[in-house]
Each structure stands twice: as C-alpha cells, then as structure tokens.
Design goal:
About 40% of the residues are buried. The chain has eleven helices and no strands. α5 packs antiparallel against α6 and α7 runs antiparallel to α8. The chain has about 270 residues and is an all-alpha fold. The chain has a domain of about 160 residues. The protein is globular and about 55 Å long.
Length: about 270
C-alpha cells in the first residue's frame, strides 16, 4: 500500500470536529450503553477505510491549526485509554474504542512535526493503536497503521540522528512482533515465520515479555487450524519463558502462570 499525500488542511479540521463529537459521546457513556451509536461507528468506519491513516507528511497550513489537530487527537486518545481500562473487557466495546483510538492516532500522526520527536510520538502511538486493532481483528486498519509505523521507524533510525540504541531495539521489536501477529491472524503462518526472523534480540525485560506474548498468541491462535504450527510456536513461547526466567535471576513474577498457560495449550 502506497503512502498518500495529505489532504487539504480543511479536511482534517472537519475531521477534528468529528473527533470532538466522538470524544463527547465516549465521555458521557453510561454503564450498560454501547460506547458509541451505530451511526457514529459507521462514520468512523468510513474515515478509517479512507486515506486518513496512511499519511506521512504534514499538510501545509497554520501552526495553530496543526496544534489544534494534535490537541484534539491527544484528548481523544486519552479518553480511549481510560475507556479501555473501564470497558475493555467487553469485546464489542473494545472494538469500537479501537476504532476511536485509530482516529485519534490519525490526527496525532498528520499533525506530527517532521523531526525526531514528532516521528517518535507518531511511531509510539501507531504501535499501540495497531495492537488494539489486531486484538479486535480490525486487520485492514491495523495494516494501514503499521504502514505508517514502518515509515516512522525508518525515519528515526539513521545513526546521525542519535536515537538511543536500546529504544531503537525496543521499537523495532514491537513493530516486527505486531507484523507477526497480523500475519498469523491472516492465516499466513509462513509469512509470520519469515517476519519472526526480523525480530532483534531484545535488550529489555519488557521486550522479552512482548516476545513471549507474541509467540504464545500465534501458537494459541493456530491451534484450531494448524496444530503442527501451533506446537512449534508454543514451544518457542516456552523457550522464551525459560530464557526470561534466567534473565530475571529466576525471579520472573508471572513464570508459574505462563508455564501453566503454555502447558495447557500444548495439551489441547
């Protein structure tokens, strides 16, 4: 999918007005109600199916307008984060919140300054937004977001920009793991295996946990359709768990839980 040039700034200002409507509805939802009405969800889908999410250049316009786009996107993003904690256990709600979070990312991304901090912020948001979309099987939206992730990651990696090596490895790890999970959900386990080879050796314990989660996700997902593939990935997950336990001095708090979960999946 080719990245598109931005639309006129006025289009994004109109989109920001819609984002304000989305946030107002999310902020006033009560327990027992859907987080958004079917009409607003339909409008969200229309926006996400367009070119909003694959813009890599900031539209020409007044800095004040761009700052407003960023502020509205950030505010909607924060509201979505709060709702995921409060309502994320309900699959329909999480799916809708994921759509709203993707919209928030689109605004933050299009307003991102063309420099290191802007690219990093866009990249960090893109990885979180894509993960939510993958978890809720909104695969086309996730793919669009990861298209931006790839471009932003490439932009921050030249050595002369001075990106911290550990941060570089961490962002790269998270990006490729999301690509692996996306390929698995598309039943392309051969591609998932290829993409797995691109995951760097993690520096941080948190990145090792991400590797564990991703390998288990693929293995558990493959159980119904491809048991041999599932066994392979679950074995990878178990080996990663053992390495994680060693890296933490035999003190990984969730070791027993993960050991039982992986063993249960292997026994299916």
């Amino acid at each position: 999918m080719m990245a598109l040039v931005p639309r006129p700034l006025d289009d994004y200002i109109s989109l920001a007005d819609f984002a304000c409507l989305v946030q107002t509805n999310l902020s006033t939802v009560t327990l027992g109600q859907p987080v958004l009405s079917p009409d607003i969800i339909s409008q969200l889908d229309d926006q996400l199916n367009g070119d909003l999410l694959i813009v890599l250049n900031t539209p020409a316009g007044d800095d004040a307008d761009l700052k407003r786009l960023d502020a509205i996107g950030t505010s909607l993003w924060n509201t979505c984060s709060q709702l995921i904690v409060a309502r994320g256990q309900f699959s329909d709600d999480l799916c809708t919140i994921g759509k709203a979070r993707a919209l928030a990312f689109g605004l933050v991304n299009v307003a991102a300054p063309a420099k290191m901090l802007g690219w990093l912020r866009s990249l960090a948001c893109s990885l979180i937004a894509a993960q939510t979309c993958i978890a809720t099987r909104q695969l086309n939206v996730a793919y669009k977001i990861l298209t931006v992730s790839a471009a932003r990651l490439k932009a921050v990696q030249p050595s002369h920009l001075g990106l911290d090596v550990t941060l570089n490895y961490s962002l790269t790890t998270k990006y490729w793991l999301l690509r692996v999970r996306l390929a698995a959900q598309e039943q392309r386990f051969d591609i998932a295996e290829h993409l797995w080879s691109k995951v760097p050796s993690p520096f941080l314990i948190g990145d090792r946990v991400c590797v564990l989660e991703a390998s288990f996700f693929v293995g558990d997902y493959a159980l119904l359709t491809s048991p041999p593939v599932a066994i392979h990935w679950l074995q990878v997950a178990h080996q990663t768990l053992l390495e994680l336990q060693t890296a933490t001095g035999q003190n990984f708090a969730a070791f027993k839980t993960w050991d039982l979960v992986i063993a249960h999946s292997l026994s299916k």
